[in-house]
Amino acid sequence: MKRIARVRAIGASVMMGAPGCSRNEADTFAGVQTDVATLGKFVTLRLVPVWAKWSVTTIGKDERFGTTDTMLWAVVRYSDADVAAVSRALQADAASRPVTMGAPPAWLLADVDLTRFRHGSDYVIEKSVSVGRPFASDLYATGFALMLPDHRVLIRFSSQ
Q: How far is it, in rounded angstroms, from Cα 145 to Cα 155?
């Protein structure tokens, strides 16, 4: 329960800082964000990316308590100096099983070509995927990270 309250509080502060956001939008974490510093409040960024695009969406609702779970999707780009260290950290944290996921948000599919991972309505990543520990945080500890071309990393975590 404490984790849920913290996720909501951070999300509300993120959305309330954006012009024109209402409290309802803050509660649903609507919109795509590009602020690296704010992303760092959700996940661990030991090395700071030079660019980020990310979103947090609601994935569950409890009738008594309201929103309970959220999903964070991010694509970050690292500098030439940092990409090798990030790649090594992800390789050292390799997943032992394939990762299967539903469709990513539209903004992500527009930015990252994931067609090679598509299997019917799901996406299955069988190789070179990390369980994401280098990016895990108190808020988001369940997920994965995948090294992409052009010094980018795809990150997906859920709050459950």
A: 4
Count Cβ atoms within 10 A of the Cβ of residue 32 and give its class: 0-12 exposed, 13-18 middle, 19 or more buried.
middle
CA distances from 72 to 79, 84, 139 (A): 22, 24, 10
Report how far residue 22's alpha carbon sits from residue 12's, in angstroms, rounded to the nearest whole number.
Answer: 9
- Count of H-run helices and E-run strands, the chain: 5, 8
The C-alpha torsion from 144 through 148 and 153 to 159, rounded to 10°, is -30
Q: Quick one: CA torsion of 76, 118, 107, 93, rounded to 10 degrees?
A: -20
Q: What is the pLDDT of residues 120-158, one digit of tens each?
A: 999 999 888 999 999 999 889 999 999 998 999 999 999
Let me know: does 127 contact 147? Beta carbons within 8 Å: no
pTM of the model as a whole: 0.78
User: Exposed, middle or buried: residue 90 (CB in 10 Å: 0-12, 13-18, 19+)?
Assistant: buried
Instruction: Starting at the earlier edge strand, list the strands of the sheet with 51-62.
Output: 51-62, 66-77, 152-158, 142-148, 129-130
